[in-house]
Amino acid sequence: MDMKKNILKSICIIALTGTFISCNDFLDKQPLDELSSTTFWKTTKDADNALTAVYASFRNSTFSAVPASGPCTELEYLSDNAVVRGTGGAPLNIQQGGINSTTGGVLNDMWTYSYKGISAANYFLDNFDKVKDLYSEADFNKLKAEALFIRTFFYNELVVHYGDVPLMLQGAEVGSDYDRMPRTPRAEVVKQMLEDIDFAIKWLPNIAYTDGHAVQGSAVVLKCRILLNDQRYSDVAKLAGDYIHDPNNPFDLADDYAGIFFGKQENNPEIMFSIQFKAPDDFHALDQMVGSRMTIFPSFNLRASYEPNDPRIKMTMYEIGDPWPNNNKSGKFEEDGNKAEGLIPFTQLAFKKYVNPNVEVPKASTLSDQHIVKMRYADLLLMYAEAMFESGQGNDPLALKALNDVRQRPGVNMPVKPQLTREIIRNERRVELAYEGIRYYDIIRWDIAKDVIPTVQYDESGRMRKFDGNLWPIPQSQMDIMGDVWEQNAPWN
After folding, report:
1. Which domains does the chain have, with CATH numbers?
2. Which of 34, 60, 411, 474 qualifies as a FRET site for 313, CA 20 to 30 Å off?
3. pTM for this one?
4. Which candidate, 58, 235, 239, places its Cα nearest to that of 151?
5. What is the DSSP secondary-structure string of 124-183?
6. Phi, psi (5° rounding) for residue 152?
7. Which DSSP string do the residues of 25-38 spell out, in sequence order?
C-alpha cells in the first residue's frame, strides 16, 4: 500500500460512509450517510485504502504536522521544556493559567482528532471481516493489529488528558443512541487498551520500522507507556526487558543523534514509529514555524538541565554565537544581522532539533518533509531503566547498562553513571527526549507538573507560568451535546 498516494482518496471514502463520527465533532448528531459501505469493501485495495485513512488520522498539527501550521512539536510548551510566543488563545491561557472548557485550541483538538482516529479505526475494524477470505490469517491479523494499535494510541492520549472518556469499539450510526453514551471509567478504557495492544504485539511483525506502518516494537513501546501511566513498573520491566534483550530485536541506537530528526531518518535503526512525509506533494511548515518564526523555543529550565559539555545541547538548540543560517551578517545566532521571520527569543535560545540547518529564512513555500518521530529506541531503553529502578531492581547491571547505552551513544559519549537514581533517570529522559513531546507525559505521570511548571518564565517581563491540573476540562461543545449525561472534570464542574 502506498500511503502517500492514497491518503486523499481514502479520506473521501471514509468521510462518505456515515459509519463513523464527524471529523468536526466527536458526538456529531448528523453523521454523513451518502455511500453504503457494502459497495466499498470488495477488494484488498479497498481495505488498504481504509487502513491508509486510519493512518491519516495522525496528519494534523496535534499529532504530526500540516502545511502552513505549527507542528505537533510545538506542544512541547505544555511541559517545562519550552515556551511559545503568546499573543492570545490556548497557548497563552495554558502558560498563564486559567484554562476552562471553552479555551479551545489544543484542549479541543486533542479530543476531536483522537476521536477522529478512533472512528476511522472502528470503521476499518467494523468492515474488515468482509474481505477476510482474501487474506492469509497472518496478513489479516497484521492489518487488524495496525488498526488496533492506532485506536489504542488515541485512547491513550484521551485518558491521559481527560481521564474517563466514552469507550467506543464500533462506529456510531444514526439511531444507535450514541449521543447518550456515558463516560467510561478510565480503568475500563485501559483494560480494553491493554487487550487490544496485546493483540497488536502478537500479530505485528518483529521487523525494523521503515514504511510508516506500525511494527511489533511500536506496540511494545505503546504498551510500556500505558503501563507506566498506571505505575505498573514490574510489568514494564518484564515487557521492555524481554524485547530489548531478545536476540531478534531489530532496533538499535542510531550513530547520529541529530540525524534521527533531520537528514538520516530513512531506515533509521532507532525510529520505532513516526509520521512520514515526502515533499513536494506531502509537506509541512516545521522549518518556517520553528526555524524562522521561532514560535516555540527552549525554556531556561531545559537549558539548565543539561550536564556540562553534553553534545546534545548543540544538537537540540541554538545558543548565542552558534553558527546559524538566518544571519547574513555574522552567520551566527544573534539579533544583529538576523534575517529570520521572528526575533531571537528572550531566552536567547531556539530549537535546532528537527530543523533543516541548511534552509535560510524558511517561508510557507519552503517544503519541509521531516518525519515526525513518535517512538524511538532510546525511549524504550530509558523506560526499562526507570521501570527496573521503580520496581526495586535498580541494582541489576542490565538496568544501568540501558541508561548508559543512551548516554554513550556515538556522537554523545557522556560519562557513564555508576548507579541509578530517580533523579538521574528522570533527567536523562528530559535531555535525551527534549522537544519530542515526551516530557509533558512524564511530568504528569510522575505527578510533578504542579511543582515544575510554576518555575518556568514564559515572557520577557518575567512572568511565571501557572498550572491548572493534571486533567483538562472536557471541551464545552461536547458537554453541550451531552447535556446532563456527563459531569465535567473538576474543578470546572
Report:
1. 1-182 (1.25.40)
2. 60
3. 0.92
4. 58
5. HHHHGGGGGGGS-HHHHHHHHHHHHHHHHHHHHHHHHHHSSB----S---TTS-GGGPPP
6. -65, -40
7. -TT-SS----S-GG
Amino acid identity, position 394 = G
β-pairing verdict for 296-298 and 317-319: unpaired
For 356, counting Cβ atoms within 10 Å of its Cβ (0-12 exposed, 13-18 middle, 19+ buried), the class is middle
pLDDT of residue 31: 34
pLDDT tens by residue, 146-200: 999 999 999 999 999 999 999 999 987 655 566 678 999 999 999 999 999 999 9
Hey, what amino acid is at 451?
A: D
Separation between Cα atoms, residue 242 and residue 238, nearest integer Å: 6
Query: 292: which DSSP letter?
Result: I
Give the integer Cα–Cα distance in Å for 83 and 459: 8
Specify the DSSP element, H or E, that contains 53. helix 44-55
Cell readout for 179 is 449521543
Cβ atoms of residues 479 and 493 within 8 Å: no
Q: What is the pLDDT of residues 34-67, one digit of tens each?
A: 335 556 899 999 999 999 999 999 999 999 999 9
Strands (DSSP E) contained in 280-394 are 296-298, 317-319, 349-351, 372-376
**2 pLDDT higher than 80:** no
Angle between helices 233-244 and 216-229 (to 10 degrees): 160
pLDDT in tens, 311-362: 999 999 999 999 999 998 999 999 999 999 999 999 999 999 999 998 887 7
Distance (Å, rounded) from C-alpha 439 to C-alpha 427? Answer: 10
Residue 472 has what DSSP assignment? P
Q: Which residues pair with 327 in a beta bridge?
A: 338
In contact, 224 and 383? CB cutoff 8 Å: yes
